[in-house]
User: Which sequence fits this backbone?
C-alpha cells in the first residue's frame, strides 16, 4: 500500500460525508479515476488495505 492509496481513501471518505453512502472499494476507485485516463493506467491494487488502515484510524480516533 502506498500513501497515494490512503490519500484516495481520504478523498472518498470526504465524498461520503458530503453525499452520503458507503466508503468502499467501488467508491474509492470511482473518485480516483480521472476522466480520460485509460483504465489500464490507473493503479487499483491496494485500495482494500488502505480502507482497512483508514477504518482502524477512525476506530482509534487517530484520523
Assistant:
Amino acid at each position: 500500500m502506498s500513501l497515494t492509496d490512503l490519500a484516495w481513501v481520504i478523498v472518498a471518505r470526504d465524498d461520503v460525508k458530503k453525499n452520503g453512502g458507503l466508503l468502499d472499494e467501488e467508491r474509492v476507485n470511482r473518485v480516483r479515476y480521472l476522466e480520460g485516463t485509460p483504465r489500464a493506467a490507473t493503479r487499483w491494487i491496494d485500495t482494500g488495505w488502505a480502507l482497512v488502515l483508514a477504518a482502524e484510524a477512525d476506530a482509534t480516533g487517530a484520523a
